[in-house]
Design goal:
Chains A, B: Keywords: Methyltransferase, Transferase. Chains A, B: One of its GO terms (biological process) is methylation. Chains A, B: It holds the Pfam family MTTB. Two copies of one chain form a homodimer. By secondary structure, chain A is α/β, with parallel strands linked by helices. Chain A has a single domain, classed as TIM Barrel. Helix content of chain A is 45%, strand content 13%. In chain A, the strands form five sheets. In chain A, strands 10, 12, 13, 14, 15 and 16 form a six-stranded mixed beta sheet that branches. Chain A has a four-stranded mixed beta sheet with strand order 3-4-2-11. In chain A, a hairpin with a 6-residue loop joins strand 14 and strand 15. The longest helix of chain A is centred in the middle third of the chain and has 22 residues. Chain A is globular, with a radius of gyration of 23 Å. The N terminus of chain A is likely disordered.
């Protein structure tokens, strides 16, 4: 499977096609198709050393598959050496197994115009994932609720530059842990028509995600097509726990995509050096991706790298640092050499407020992510305080910046119009371009323009209240939520989804564990 | 002259050598020597089109040398076609003349440890240049004074990551226009021991700059060595005014370096397209650099590109935009193909406050500048509000971020220690790297660490006053200024410089024009 094939022409129609008819008119950019080169930061010699060492790690040290006898059986059958829960993988085996994973795949959305192609030279942007807290200027920092969750899904739906609705945009802590995934999925499915992620916190919740997708897209469609991309974190160093692997097994078996992603705070879960961390990242991803292919050859999977480093003074993770950038570039090179889609970067920062620190660290990470060849950028907007907080203001601030990435990635045209020789001849030395024919013909689309930041002269800005970026963002959050329009959905589909959630919830007692 | 040669062993010693003995112990990083590749954004075909078109501009349209008969004579003698003040340059002539300019040169500082090498794979960082206003949290936005100027020179001297003291770090508006340059130069020479820039606002002021350098460095030394790099803006489109060219003539004749830099707000002073703007930039730089070589073959000169674009709604210049980034990359490629050092990028932003907007736009520009192969980055810190304001807080915020560029540029080591295989073996699956031998040996230098930003947990940060980045920066400005130590200077040199300034000031009436 190089690319999953869209099969909208099948008989019987189904929910996906019906949903498509009801899509709203909110303008969203197509995923980014890069027309610029990647920055190849490491040279071939360095990459070969790292690849050699990663094979040595798999062969000599091995990885643990915890509490998962079936996984050990699969590995044994594939030729690995099993010692308790330790799996030692002969040199070359993991990479060979990874070869059946597709280099690119389509993730379908209920609105087909919002399908995304993950891999190749593309970049798909998805919002922040996982924060237990939210923050806004008015109410400050607090535990996230399902209302916050729904608000962030709405903001994502309203964003022109986000291609993907994401997954746990924040943790709805007011909903029992064992039922949260149902409300989260229902929100993504009903409040957005962009693609989304499934639950990974229990294998049964992954199965619920698949079952709800069957209602939304139709059972036949889900069997043949990828409709979810879900986040499978590796318990670094070198440990694959049964919860995450259980979810991966469900998804892979159903041809649903997984991001296999080391979760590394360098200095704690990996060596303090960039090369050492890249070695571990590669070993972990090779083992995880190979395992996905043992579950089902051809299952779509993404090479993930979530890497930050520890502040040796405070013990806190740091973001937007040069070492993290170097790892982002290097891991991208390693992913391309494996022919796998690559996930990394995001709106990372360690700030407690959406202030200058947050923006310095975020902008550094976003730019490096673009140039590192990232194909799927989770956390592309909204991240604050090391990922503990989803920030309303920062969500719209970051989402606005993502527009600049689109324009940057489009590259530089040198067609006759872009050469502008007529304009140069018309204006000449000492002239002015504002009124010339070329400017008049192109000024509307020539330059990317922020929909949030302030371009006004000081005096105007001052008269309007001298607002900083956070205040501008507060106003924009309100405007977007006030203007939100829910994409329509076939009533039967909505009813079936609602019924599924209600039945599932009724079938088990609340649990906050 | 590939590289000017330092001649410290000459008899007689001189001010420079004496000054060196008195240097302070403020730690400053050596200029950046990149160990990472540049991003080559445009392909060869696009660059060749732009180069061809730039020659067409010079040949068919030409450039104006205004009010400068001597320049017209020089151009005529070199083979250009003169028509009034218009100079039309036959295809290939400008590029051929540029070939005598050095690809790299040393700018000497009075402290030889702070000499910088401009060109090659190096990056030299200099502070903001030109703002008539300053801003700080306490006193807000106001006209800059000589006290502010001295404060910024002190902050530059105290910055670990700034290699250069710059030039007009702000306009000392309380000093008459015709005398400002004397006080500014005296401040750079006495309050800093880093390299600096000369005056360009009148040819006579350029000559004063050279004369003061002769006092500081010794007459013989200045004759043979570059001790100033000065900013010569082109009056885009395609116009070379007599003030700037007069200053360039003085500097080139004295083997002092000039940045020949188009000053372009795209859409106003250049076409609205990236390729069209690059064509104009190249034509202008070729004409300006060629002219410097007509004045004196071998004079050191830098390919400059200051390019922003206009906001078509407000008419204001915008910063940190994708089009500006593309031009920064493209102009760097064109400069390298000419074998010239390259100046571009900086802490550009259009914000009125050192807030998230300022940081997003700045971080984007700094990162793109690093990866675009910039050799001399003017405005690397302190820029606010489109360059109208030098911000105290942003100066230290940006200067801190410049540290990250140093680490990023150092590249990724794959030596045995960096490979960290011992650490991977020691820790193994499920282990922890904090205590392992490799971490203990390297943790102090492994990760770049901000000296400004907040890495503390939320609770600690909250107890300490919940300060945003601007508040942290206010405290850092105060700390640096309180801790400032003036580099010592031979009393005779100080006396001679002070006497020169006093005599010059007494020789003319004040003028604020």
């Amino acid at each position: 499977m190089e690319t999953t094939t869209r099969k909208r022409s099948r008989s019987g129609g189904g929910a996906a096609r019906r949903a498509a008819r009801g899509s709203t008119a909110v303008e969203t950019a197509r995923f980014i198709e890069r027309n610029i080169p990647n920055l190849e930061l490491l040279n071939d010699e360095a990459l070969e050393i790292i690849e050699h060492n990663a094979e040595t790690v798999l062969e000599e040290i091995g990885v643990n598959f915890v509490n998962n006898p079936a996984a050990l059986e699969r590995w044994k059958a594939a030729g690995a050496e099993i010692d308790g829960e330790r799996v030692r993988i002969p040199r070359g085996l993991a990479r060979k197994l990874c070869a059946t994973a597709p280099s690119s795949f389509t993730q379908h959305a209920r609105n087909p115009a919002r399908n995304v192609e993950i891999g190749g030279r593309n970049l798909v942007l998805a919002p922040v994932y996982g924060p237990p807290f939210v923050h806004d200027a008015e109410k400050g920092r607090r535990y996230a609720t399902i209302e916050d969750f729904r608000n962030f899904v709405k903001l994502g739906q309203m964003s022109r530059w986000l291609h993907h609705s994401g997954g746990t945009v924040c943790e709805p802590t007011d909903i029992p842990v064992n039922k949260r995934h149902l409300d989260m999925l229902l929100a993504h499915m009903t409040l957005s028509d962009k693609p989304f992620m499934g639950s990974v916190t229990e294998p049964s919740r992954a199965q619920d995600s698949v079952d709800m997708c069957k209602i939304l897209f139709g059972e036949e469609f889900v069997r043949d097509n990828t409709v979810m991309t879900s986040l499978i974190n590796i318990n670094s160093p070198l440990t694959f726990d049964d919860t995450m692997m259980g979810a991966l097994e469900i998804y892979a078996a159903n041809m649903q995509a997984c991001i296999v992603s080391p979760f590394i705070v360098g200095g704690a879960m990996a060596p303090v050096s960039v090369a050492g961390t890249l070695t571990q990242v590669l070993a972990e991803v090779m083992a995880g991706v190979a395992y996905s292919q043992l579950v089902r050859a051809g299952a779509p999977v993404i090479f993930g790298a979530f890497v930050t480093s520890i502040d040796m003074n405070s013990g806190a993770p740091t973001f937007g640092t040069p070492e993290a950038a170097q790892i982002t570039y290097g891991a991208g090179q390693l992913a391309r050499r494996m022919g796998l889609p690559y996930r990394s970067a995001g709106s990372f920062n360690g700030s407690k407020l959406p202030d200058a620190q947050a923006a310095y660290e975020t902008a550094s990470t976003l730019h490096n992510g673009l140039l590192a060849g990232v194909n799927f950028m989770l956390h592309a907007c909204g991240w604050l305080e090391g990922g503990l907080v989803a920030s309303y203001e920062k969500f719209v601030m970051d989402a606005d910046q993502l527009g600049a990435l689109h324009k940057m990635a489009a590259g530089v045209s040198v067609d006759e119009s872009a050469q502008a020789m007529d304009a140069l001849r018309e204006v000449g030395p000492g002239g002015h371009y504002l009124g010339c024919a070329h400017t008049q013909a192109h000024f509307k689309t020539a330059f990317w323009r922020s929909e949030l930041l302030d371009y006004k002269p000081y005096e105007t800005w001052s008269e309007e209240g001298a607002r900083d970026t956070m205040q501008l963002a507060t106003a924009r959050v309100r405007k977007l939520l006030d203007g939100y329009e829910q994409p329509t959905m076939e009533p039967a589909t909505l009813e079936a989804l609602t019924e599924f959630v209600a039945q599932k919830k009724a079938s088990m007692p609340d649990s906050f564990m």
